Amino acid sequence: MRVNNSGRAVWIMNGLALRAAQSMGLHRDGRKLGLSPFEAEIRRRLWWHFLERDGRGGEDYGLQNPSGPNPLYSVDQPRNLHDSDLSPEMKELPESRPGWTRMTLSLVNIQIARAWGRLFQMGWSTEVTPGEDVRAEVVKEASIRAHEILQGCNPLIPEQMMTVVIARFLVQKLDIVSRRQWQSLHQPDDRRFWATENNLLDALSVLEQCNNMWDIEDLAPYHWITRAFPQYHMIFYILRHLCACPRGPNASRAFEAVEKHLATVNKGEKGAHKGLMWTVLTTLRERAMMMMQRDGEGTEAEPQEVSESIEGRPQAVVDDSRDVPDPVSHHAYADHGLPDWNTLLQDFPWDMDDFNMIF
Question: Number of folded domains in the chain?
């Protein structure tokens, strides 16, 4: 559903499913309830799947996920087992397999969800946000656990290669997005921390890895799962950066990566670019393209000029917004029962201050 519908209905449906799971008691581990090993393990898989999807659905809209993993949920993580390893007649649960299974990517997703849950509790549930070193440690722990899970994967086997590549850019995304959020929490008015070439290259690395997956012939049968991991955050940051610094040394490369990703996502997908996020991203794309054409696309700037553009360009973006062609009117809003985004976008904040918590 998340692949074919980019509207908020996905996040709402995930929330309903999560509440239904709680009402059934899935937030309590089946072993502690005296259930059979088979039933307890299936419940674990379901519960963690709901939590992970709820977090991913919320992040599409810049919504924090307070329903993520927390101490009140006493559910063990599922084991790295094939479906064939489980049966209703089993008396004991087998130990996790050291190699790849179709649970491997889900287990990595669980580590990412747990890290996001910890970061949320630290960043938005305390009076003083912990320092960058604390955030980095949480990300490092998630990265180490993900690496341990992936050790048994053989990258020469296409499905396992796909697992490794997706897992890697999920960890990178956790680091990039949480770092940006931490900077916003500590220094919300300092723009110099987001419009940097290092931040751009980090986001570009993730987007290019995702793009490269589409060029590997062996991964063609698994393109469907790639669509379940849309790179809204990376595209958003890259386009926002290009609006602020259209003359950077990596501007052309970054814009080409965005164009390739948008073209790939839209290829063969009816209505793939409809919905809230795509309206914003398309508008930003038009803006970035105009700024790059005006300032000379891909022209390398001296370090001092780049620094000046970082501090001064966002205000110029606001002042020049009337010159931008309105691409919004060409997008039909796909969700029913929600406000028309075309109306909301009339006061679209070109300086993106209202989107700090998205990226």
Answer: 1
